[in-house]
Amino acid sequence: MARILLVEDEDPVRAFVKRALETDGHTVLEASDGEDGIDLFIAEGGKFDLLLTDIRMPIMDGIELAHMVRQQNAQIPILLMTGFAEQRERASSLSGIVTDVLTKPFTLVDLKKTVSLILG
Length: 120
Fold this sequence. Notes:
Helix content is about 45%, strand content about 20%.
């Protein structure tokens, strides 16, 4: 199964996503903002199969995080999450970097299906 870096500032959403992915057998390491996310990514040597991050977060948003992660590992798939239409539009400019964008609220089935498709 995959190693996933989950970056989400809302505790309930992060817990829901982590639990859902772990029930599918994935290993999920988590951070509560982009700055902690990039620190964890670097500390783990970039050894992740997927970056799953919220777009809108304090300190460092998911778009900046996506750019920084891609500088470290050009092959990692990136899945963004957002509940804000304008943030989804911002993500569309990252078509070469971001694999997909999940719109909040999403269902457990949507999450698992999207992650499964990305990981192939």
